[in-house]
Amino acid sequence: MDFAQSYFITEEGAPTPLRAVAEGRVRFQEVDAMGIVWHGHYASFFEKGRIAFGDRYGMSYQEFRRQRTPAPVVRFHCDYKRPLLFDENYTVETSLHWSDAARLDFSYVIRNSGSDICATGYTVQLLTDKNGEICLLLPDWLASFRRYWRSGCWQQGPWRAVEDKA
Amino acid sequence: MDFAQSYFITEEGAPTPLRAVAEGRVRFQEVDAMGIVWHGHYASFFEKGRIAFGDRYGMSYQEFRRQRTPAPVVRFHCDYKRPLLFDENYTVETSLHWSDAARLDFSYVIRNSGSDICATGYTVQLLTDKNGEICLLLPDWLASFRRYWRSGCWQQGPWRAVEDKA
Amino acid sequence: MDFAQSYFITEEGAPTPLRAVAEGRVRFQEVDAMGIVWHGHYASFFEKGRIAFGDRYGMSYQEFRRQRTPAPVVRFHCDYKRPLLFDENYTVETSLHWSDAARLDFSYVIRNSGSDICATGYTVQLLTDKNGEICLLLPDWLASFRRYWRSGCWQQGPWRAVEDKA
Amino acid sequence: MDFAQSYFITEEGAPTPLRAVAEGRVRFQEVDAMGIVWHGHYASFFEKGRIAFGDRYGMSYQEFRRQRTPAPVVRFHCDYKRPLLFDENYTVETSLHWSDAARLDFSYVIRNSGSDICATGYTVQLLTDKNGEICLLLPDWLASFRRYWRSGCWQQGPWRAVEDKA
């Protein structure tokens, strides 16, 4: 079963999602009085996933800042399947789903060290200009990113924002 | 428009949701590098809302513990409408929606001091026994709570778990 | 015993410390797996204290920002006496201690609802200019604040930064 | 200059401190509105350091729990030298200092990826029995740990609590 598919409906013929995996280890203060990771901390696990994704695909937070493209989270959703305990290692598999719109649709799967699924979820980010107005058109650098994605060139190495400057 | 209604579908004839309002003020460390409350902190705002709800309706976390009824959050969802800034006052309106099942369906509306809606969301909690097995039947004390709710007696003052002990 | 005095040595004849009290209530996610507030969260309790202090004495974070006077914390110290539990009410008594230097010396006493001392501590903040260079001289607006303090005028109402603009 | 030495005064002839190094990377939500890591988050960096220390020397949190030896932090101190920024890599060098008493004295040095010292600090933990009473005598398993430390056997591999069971 593909959780990533279940959160977003993708048009026929869209490129397959891009994926990256981050690793983490539960911190002491992330565990609550019940002895399990407090549900609110999963937002930081998802963020860890987005950062690993950005590292791999040339879409880091720094790149968004450099391009003056704020991308605020407008929706956060998490389904909890199984608790994580103190000191457990976990992975965050993060997938970016194709969209034609000026938005970023990420889904997440968190697994414990035994590969059990502990949580799944998704976030939606809208792109804004520097005044906070929602973009109707995709900024050039992200349009370039999407062309690269659709062209299926990832096997030749990651896209870099700078390539588009030439 | 009633956000609370839009997250949960309630059967015909179900009692109206129970509501409580909590107040808060944005802490310095809740604001991120963009100058707005980091989206992950809304989980603690919703929790503030559930605690105020429990205070008002006799369903505090302590009561759940005393009754040995863990109620883990199995789903968290938040829609962000407008940012909250450092030091802003906000309110969390928390509503419990009727369900016949052994679960708790809460929705939330967060407003700033100008009464603008900043975020809405919902959580689902399942009830478990002390071994972590999901309850199929509602524990007696919560069944009593629901009878009180359905009877429309809230205007006579809050239900107390202890009433049912007699 | 005056904890505030024990953290800072004040010169003979210095004005008495200025004090303010903030109130808080322990949040669920502030409690760790041992069932007590995790020690690292006291930094946010102290900050709650500084904010209440700023509100009362006209030295809010917003005022520091408006005056372009960053005041980073360069030292944080906390002594833990007695644990705080989930849902406990607590107070933070915050005192600003006189100093002739371009720094802010705050001490803190956290008490539970039974007035037991749960923690004491202090912070030191240095004032910097907008480039992050440490100020050797006090900015005018804070010099005005200190003159007001030394003059013993607080009983006539709080000092306001704006007074100095005339 | 050895910061570790400056926080604790060690008796003549005491064994040299034991050290371990942890690595971390600044998370987005650890950065405040000033664009630097909020000072309160260093408590979690120190904790990361203690956990790496426990891993290396056989004194994990789990071991303390298994041995029913709570070790609450009774003092926390941090000196901030230089800010950490979003996404920076950092190291936490953690040292346990010799003491004859029933306490744990740790010091910490946090460095950025350029090896600049960003913060130093220390914590003191007291050992308690399961009722929360402070131990006057060291529990057997920790006495065994200290004998191993004094004997200078670390170069032969880490001490294990289980060794003492024989």
Keyphrases for this structure?
alpha+beta; 5-stranded antiparallel β-sheet; 4 helices; homotetramer; 166 residues; globular
Query: What fraction of residues of chain A sit in β-strands?
Result: 25-35%
Class based on secondary structure composition and strand pairing of chain A: alpha+beta
Cα gyration radius of chain A (Å): 17 Å
Biggest pleated-sheet summary of chain A: 5 strands, antiparallel
Oligomer: homotetramer
Q: Please provide the count of β strands of chain A.
A: 5
Strand order of the largest sheet of chain A: 1-3-4-5-2
* Overall pLDDT score of chain A: 90
| Gross geometry of chain A | globular
Amino- and carboxy-terminal Cα gap of chain A: 42 Å
H and E order of chain A: HEHHEEEEH
Helix fraction of chain A by DSSP (H/I, runs of at least 4): 10-25%
Low-confidence stretches of chain A: none
How many H/I helices of chain A?
4
Find the biggest chain interface. Answer: A-B, 21 and 21 residues
Could you walk me through the main structural features you see in this protein, from its secondary elements to its overall organization?
With 166 residues, chain A is an alpha+beta fold. In chain A, 23% of the residues lie in helices and 27% in strands. Chain A contains four helices and five strands. Chain A has helices at residues 3-7, 42-57, 61-66, 140-150, and strands at residues 18-25, 73-80, 89-97, 103-112, 117-126. A five-stranded antiparallel β-sheet of chain A has the order 1-3-4-5-2. The longest helix of chain A has 16 residues, at 42-57. The model of chain A has no long low-confidence stretch (mean pLDDT 90). Chain A binds chain C through residues 28-29, 31-33, 35, 38, 40-41, 86, and chain C through 28-29, 31-33, 35, 38, 40-41, 86.
